TrEMBL record:
Family assignment from sequence similarity: Belongs to the fimbrial export usher family.
Predominant place of localization: membrane
Location relative to the cell: Cell outer membrane
Residue ranges the record marks as coiled coil: none
Membrane topology label: Multi-pass membrane protein
Protein name: Fimbrial protein
Alphabetical UniProt keywords: Cell outer membrane, Fimbrium biogenesis, Membrane, Signal, Transmembrane, Transmembrane beta strand, Transmembrane helix, Transport
Record-level GO BP terms: pilus assembly
Transmembrane segment boundaries: 30-49
Cellular component GO terms held in the UniProt record: cell outer membrane
Molecular-function GO terms, alphabetical: fimbrial usher porin activity
Length: 950
């Protein structure tokens, strides 16, 4: 009987002391509402009760009476415990906390009884006060400390109050402004940042690819021989020479020194020795497989990460393992920065990014409030009265506040893309209105006034294409927002040896005609046995939004470098080639060095049904006669009666000896997407058409259908047919299809395609696992660099983590909530609709503010036990009065009687004994002894039974 009593106590908490169950979407809730059974605190609310009852009872409480037509009985019911309004009984409630009408969090708050009061009072712990924004430095340290778990609201301020709405499970807290910290919107106190628990993480991506090719016609350009630099013949695949470019990339070159060998590796060859070997026909069959692993270990605030890959090829029969990078990172909370040791990349904001192996520290903008990230100007003005201030952009209201008479400052606007001038309206209390404009355009260099961004790196250049020495270097950068219109920045790069030194200085300016950034880099490079090079590079960036025409110059940048300027990557690659070629002549190396670079992006929104137009263009020229490259792209998209269509056009231009002078490549395309279903249809398939013309490749037409199916749209599919009319007059028709499943613990995909000359098939799987203190839990997707939560919900198998795709609670009661935002309050919710009716979630939502990469335990309380609906009558056959109190054998209240003698109980597997009381007399009490029927075929459906109360 002890076990039964314990389960009944759980039921009591669910039905009486914890009305938070009203949020749980389970069969229990719907049955209770249908039968008139509800938590006592909710039933007891009188018609005249206010929407938000105070914690202290009203001076003249209304008399509570129930109509006999409602109760279904002429007998009186003792409801004196509800005569003082909507009482808050002692217990734990999962409530939404609002501070001065602003939602702060959803948390479990304990209410304790207070002498002389019929209403329980809330207890706040130190962490909750911090989360509510209380300035804890102003409070009595003996009363308000980190160890005190029950701090009364009166300890915060004598004027602070708390009101509980039991029906809405909302706790409204009013705190005077002087007792709160002044903080930017979106601020989350570092005291709430959670580094989580020790855990091992692994994300994986597996792909197997099979290709069978056959061709019977002549083939003269697919393979051949070349003379290697050592004088021996080398089999090669392609018909073009390649040269090592910046960062070790191989780029086409008429005088290059590398070619792609048949072993898949680039091999050095002599110039001008390539000779294609004609082939009459061929067939090949190749199978290769790939495994990518992202590994992680969290321990004592350190986040150790490693990226590994493995490749297997049927032709060679070999498996090649590669370590991409390994790092260890830790937060520096005081500086709002990160410390990383291992492999990584420099920030790439001031200087071009450089791969390195070493240590770095950099400021982390993610640790700033949302309203302090990116660039937005500070709004300053003056109010003559107690005024309402609106800040609008393009007619949209961004911010509104009330200010006191005198000067005011608004410094926590959220960044909005690349800007758009702000209109500030000041509505005075006397009815007058005055307005003014604040220019707002942004380039990546702009920062808010008073905000700084910095980075320091010390390490070795980590470029795997380098064959010789990899120099050590240091880099430091700093940006500082001076005021609304000016940001200054600078940086330095230097190798340990006297190979390379660079200094950069610049400024970003916000003006009414747009935002500009200008910087100049001075570099000096000294190669052994060669003359030093000293040069400069100038970079200009521009951005502007024109709201009246819907035009956005997202980013326009121009860079000019003189002939002696080298970047750090250029210098390192040049030295490596000079060493390999045993030369001190820079002309022998013939490195591609940028001369001019221009990038422009323009977006035009015509508004309404007129659609959107975009344009992007880039032009790159190089020193020493290297081929230039120019690309333009133009596109238009719109929707007509749910039909989406887009038109694209692009033009590429390259010039150089290998292209026989100048070469143009024009492309034109049309894309149409048509939904095959009504606007309200679920899993509507999409019919897609596309047509593309390419001057070089020819014409390509494609038609297909794709969509999703399944209760949660967890399955996706696609089927396509394409026709390619190549420029060499060889046409080809291809049919292909794909099928995917977003399973609860992995993502699975497969594809197949067929044409006259090849057959291709592939299968892939992606997912992850976490090893934590509760065991091993699988996840459908996992990025070890993102913060995750380990959901623990005992016995709630099948509950879905609403914020994490198809992730569901496994048979052990665990699930992975992925992609949490670091340093922000995240809501993690569980959808209980897939769980057994024998399980009830006490709460369906928890909040957490994880640190970057943290693994956060999230415990969802559950109540498990067999659910039963009892229809009880008195011994004389009369209905038990509605609202009668129900208690277990130990006198613990477990709920109230519903209409028609209906009673819901959870927890007893075989049966139990309950006491029912609707008055103080002996004839106003009885006992119910019930026995449940045995389960049939493992059914978990809610049981029903009849019982007599004697």
């Amino acid at each position: 009987m002890k076990a039964t009593r314990t389960k009944h106590v759980h039921a009591a908490r669910a039905l009486v002391q914890e009305p938070r169950v009203t949020r749980v979407r389970t069969l229990t809730r719907y049955v209770m509402l249908a039968l008139g059974i509800a938590p006592a605190a909710v039933l007891a609310a009188p018609a005249a009760a206010p929407a938000g009852p105070a914690l202290e009872p009203a001076a003249s409480p209304a008399v509570v009476e129930f109509s006999s037509a409602f109760t279904g009985s002429s007998q009186s019911v003792d409801v004196s415990r509800f005569e003082k309004g909507n009482p808050v009984l002692p217990g734990s409630y999962n409530v939404d906390i609002f501070v001065n009408d602003g939602r702060v969090a959803r948390k479990n708050i304990t209410f304790r009884a207070v002498d002389g009061s019929a209403v329980a009072q809330p207890c706040f712990d130190y962490a909750t006060l911090v989360q509510m924004g209380v300035d804890t430095n102003r409070l009595d340290p003996q009363t308000v400390n980190t160890q005190n778990s029950c701090i009364a609201i009166g300890a915060v301020s004598g004027d602070a109050t708390a009101q509980m709405d039991v029906g809405e499970l909302r706790l409204d807290v009013s705190i005077p402004q002087e007792s709160l910290r002044r903080q930017a919107r979106g601020y989350v106190s570092p005291d709430l940042w959670d580094q989580g628990e020790t855990a091992f993480l692994m994300g994986y991506n597996v792909n197997a690819y099979s290709l069978n090719q056959s061709y019977s016609g002549p083939r003269t350009s697919g393979g051949g021989t070349a003379v290697g630099t050592d004088g021996t013949q080398v089999d090669v695949q392609g018909a073009q020479y390649y040269a090592a470019g910046p960062g070790g990339n191989y780029v086409p070159s008429a005088t290059g020194s590398y070619m792609l060998g048949n072993n898949g590796q680039y091999v050095p060859v002599q110039r001008g020795t390539y000779a294609p070997v004609p082939r009459v026909g061929y067939s090949s069959n190749d199978v290769n497989a790939y495994l990518g692993l992202n590994l992680g270990l969290n321990v004592m605030g350190w986040r150790i990460r490693s990226q590994e890959t493995a490749q297997w090829d049927q032709r060679t029969g070999r498996t090649r393992w590669t370590n991409i990078n390994t790092t260890a990172t830790h937060d520096i909370t005081r500086w709002k920065a990160q410390f990383t040791i291992g492999d990584g990349y420099t920030q790439g904001v001031v200087f071009d990014t450089t791969p390195f192996r070493g240590i770095t520290m950099y400021s982390d903008d993610r640790m700033l409030p949302d309203s302090q990230q990116g660039y937005a100007p500070v709004v300053r003005g003056t109010a003559n009265t107690q005024a309402r201030v609106e800040v609008r952009q393009n007619g949209n209201l961004l911010y509104q506040t009330t200010v006191a008479p005198g000067p005011f400052v608004i410094d926590d606007l959220y960044a909005t893309g690349y800007g758009g001038d702000l209109t500030v309206n000041v509505f005075e209390a006397d009815g007058s209105v005055h307005s003014f404009l604040v220019p707002y355009s942004a380039v990546p260099m702009l920062l808010r006034p008073g905000v700084g961004r910095w980075s320091i790196t010390d390490g070795q250049v980590h470029n795997t294409a380098l064959r010789n020495d990899k120099p050590y270097f240091v880099e430091g950068t700093y940006q500082r927002g001076i005021n609304n219109w000016l940001t200054l920045y600078g940086g330095v790069q230097s190798t340990y040896r006297d190979l390379y030194h660079a200094y950069l200085g610049g400024a970003a300016v916000n003006t009414p005609v747009g935002a500009f950034a200008l910087d100049v880099t001075r570099s000096r490079t000294s190669f052994q046995g060669a003359d030093s090079l000293s040069g400069y590079s100038t970079r200009v960036s521009y951005s502007k939004v024109i709201p009246s025409s819907g035009t956005t110059f997202a980013l326009a940048s121009y860079r000019y470098s003189n002939g002696n300027f080298l970047s750090l990557s250029d210098a390192v690659v040049t030295q490596d080639l000079m060493t390999s070629m045993h030369t001190s002549s820079l002309t022998t190396v013939n490195l591609m060095r940028s001369r001019q670079r221009l990038n422009v992006t323009v977006n035009q929104n015509f508004g309404g049904r007129a659609g959107q137009l975009y344009f992007s263009g880039s032009r790159n020229t190089y020193w020493q006669g290297m081929p230039s490259a120019t690309t333009y792209q133009l596109g238009y998209s719109n929707t007509y009666r749910r039909v989406n269509f887009g038109i694209t056009a692009s033009r590429s231009y390259t010039a150089g000896p290998m292209y026989n002078g100048a070469h143009y490549d024009n492309q034109f395309g049309l894309n149409v997407s048509i939904p095959l279903g009504g606007p309200s249809s679920r899993n509507t398939p999409m019919l897609q058409f596309s047509a593309m013309h390419d001057d070089v490749m020819g014409d390509s037409d494609r038609a297909g259908i794709n969509g999703t199916f399944g209760k949660e749209s967890q399955f996706n599919y696609g089927a396509y047919a394409s026709y390619n009319d190549y420029s060499n007059s060889r046409a080809q028709t291809t049919a292909s299809g794909n099928l995917g499943w977003q399973a609860p613990y992995a993502n699975l995909n497969g594809s197949y395609s067929y044409s006259d000359h090849y057959q291709q098939a592939s299968v892939s799987a992606a997912g992850g696992l976490v090893v934590h203190r509760g065991g091993i839990t699988l996840a459908p997707q996992l990025d070890p660099n993102s913060a995750i939560g380990i959901v623990e919900a005992p016995d709630a198998k099948g509950a879905r983590v609403s914020s994490s795709g198809q992730a569901t609670v496994d048979g052990r009661g665990y699930a992975v909530a992925s992609n949490l935002m670091p340093y922000r309050m995240n809501d993690v919710t569980l959808d209980p609709s897939g769980t057994s009716s024998d399980v009830e979630l006490q709460t369906t939502r928890l909040q957490t503010a994880p640190r970057a990469g943290a693994v956060i335990p999230l415990k969802f309380d559950t109540v498990s036990g067999r659910a039963v609906l009892i229809h009880a009558t008195q011994a004389d056959g009369k209905v038990i009065p509605f609202g009668a109190e129900v208690l277990d054998a130990d006198g613990q209240s477990v709920g109230t009687m519903g209409q028609g003698g209906q009673l819901f109980v959870r927890g007893a597997e075989d049966g139990g004994v309950l006491a029912v009381r609707w008055g103080s007399g002996a004839d106003e009490q009885c006992h119910i002894q019930y026995v449940l029927p045995a389960r049939t075929n493992g059914s978990e459906a809610m049981a029903t039974t009849d019982a007599v109360c004697r």
